[in-house]
Amino acid sequence: MTIRQKAPRLGAHISVAGGAFNALYRGKSIHCDSIQVFTRNQTQWKSKPLVDSDIISFKKALAETGISPILAHDSYLINLGSPEDSKWLQSREAFDEEIHRASQLGIHYLVFHPGAHMGAGEKYGLQRIVEALNLALAKDAGGQLQLLIESTAGQGSALGYRFEHLATLLEAVKPAGRIGVCLDTCHVFAAGYDLRTPEAFQKTMSHFDKVVGLRNLKAWHLNDSKKDLGSRVDRHDDIGKGFIGAAGFGNLLKDPRMHGIPMILETPGTEEDHSRNLETLRHLMAG
Predict the structure, then answer these.
(1) Whole-number Å distance between alpha carbons of 93 and 237
(2) Roughly what angle, to the nearest 10 degrees, separates helices 163-172 and 198-211?
(3) pTM
(4) Which residue, 147, 169, 246, is CA-closest to 213?
(5) What three-state secondary structure class fits 34?
(6) Cis before 268 (ω within 30)
(7) Which pLDDT score is estimated for 1?
(8) Range with the poorest average pLDDT among 9-18, 87-96, 262-271
(9) Is 133's pLDDT higher than 50?
(10) For residues 237 and 226, is the Cβ–Cβ distance under 8 A?
(11) N or C terminus: fewer CB in 10 A for the chain?
């Protein structure tokens, strides 16, 4: 049985400029409990392989900072739901590489966008994603890295904006112990699930628990939303400055079921911006 701590593990997506290990020290400098990183350039298909010195430096920084868990986010180019065989194969190869790199570094979770059906239909797209994930996990049989499906806003033909989509993937991907969910507050809200009042938050989480299961919730991305409820538009804002508002994040932070779960700020900005948003979150948690 996992014994959770008495508070969420607050952190941020941190730059890996100068080497991935530097993200851990940057995270420590702004008092992150947990961090998320890219292990490669997220806007390019090709990347240089990690060398021994990269891995040694990262694991040394892990031990020195005590930051845990570490999340990696996959490339934005990857689309495991693509109906085009060439794009799907290219995405699968890139995703396999993401798994390999995260595993080399001793990272705990790989967060990924499930994919988009590109007009082929949601059922087809979900089947395509299931096939890609099962092939990836079969290739990495015996690995320890856990894959986390990120909920989406449902912009365009993106899948994962309904809790039912997440449940479909969780049920079909094997082994079950290698797959979980990362909920993004902006995406959840834009997809039509309200978080703003205690009653709305509890309704949303009760629905999630019924459809997906709280046991499968392994991480959160914390972003306010520049667009209103149900907009299906993914636009992040600073905590308390968007349509979710400070009270919505307070509902989440004070829920004892979320204690011990990593909660990662993604709102674009500098480490100074992350530090300011972390201070806001800690104030809400204590208030």
Answers:
(1) 33
(2) 30
(3) 0.96
(4) 169
(5) strand
(6) no
(7) 31
(8) 262-271
(9) yes
(10) yes
(11) N
Give residue 7's pLDDT.
85
Question: In this structure, which amino acid lies at residue 70?
Answer: I
Residues pairing with 111 in the sheet: 73, 148
Q: What 8-state DSSP symbol labels residue 8?
A: -
Alpha-carbon distance values, 105 to 37, 70, 99 (Å)? 11, 10, 10
- CATH assignment of 71-264, among 3.20.20.150, 3.20.110.20, 3.20.20.80, 3.30.70.100: 3.20.20.150
The residue with tokens 């709102």 is 267
Residue 130, helix vs strand vs coil: helix
**For position 268, what pLDDT does the model report?**
80
Residues 6 or more apart in contact with residue 44 via CB below 8 angstroms: 75, 77
Q: How many residues does the chain have?
A: 287
- What three-state secondary structure class fits 55? helix
Question: Is the pLDDT at 5 greater than 70, yes or no?
Answer: no
